[in-house]
Amino acid sequence: xxxxxxxxxxxxxxxxxxxxxxxxxxxxxxxxxxxxxxxxxxxxxxxxxxxxxxxxxxxxxxxxxxxxxxxxxxxxxxxxxxxxxxxxxxxxxxxxxxxxxxxxxxxxxxxxxxxxxxxxxxxxxxxxxxxxxxxxxxxxxxxxxxxxxxxxxxxxxxxxxxxxxxxxx
Length: 169
Known about the structure:
- It holds the Pfam family DUF6702.
- This is DUF6702 family protein.
- Keywords: Signal.
- It is a single chain.
- This protein is an alpha+beta fold.
- The chain has helices spanning 2-19, 50-60, 75-87, and strands spanning 28-36, 41-49, 88-92, 95-97, 100-107, 110-117, 125-130, 141-148, 151-157, 163-167.
């Protein structure tokens, strides 16, 4: 009888753990920003959990959005670009700068969004404000990694401190 109780307890615990396996405990994104001096461009890769991005796009634009499917709507890229332009603000030399949304790809449970800023001759100051997913997850953290003039810097941005500023004078 004890064996049966232990077995049922184990199976119940296992079922509970498996039911939560599709959700992740931490809310984090990673944005890499690199200045490629030879091309006079800033190349940006923003990595966001697919389920989190899908949730925010559903809430903002269309409740029927489903990411990472074979028959994905053509408007998904437009929605992603629109959201990122609203939540990711970049200033170079104190000027607001727009970036181009080049595209995206899915790997495992992450969407990689590729962005670019062209015609950047020099960077004296860089300010990045990243509020991606702050509107749906109050504990969201956005890691920002920069590589400018061969100098690497990293920041953790949270809703209370959503901006990183770098000076290169």
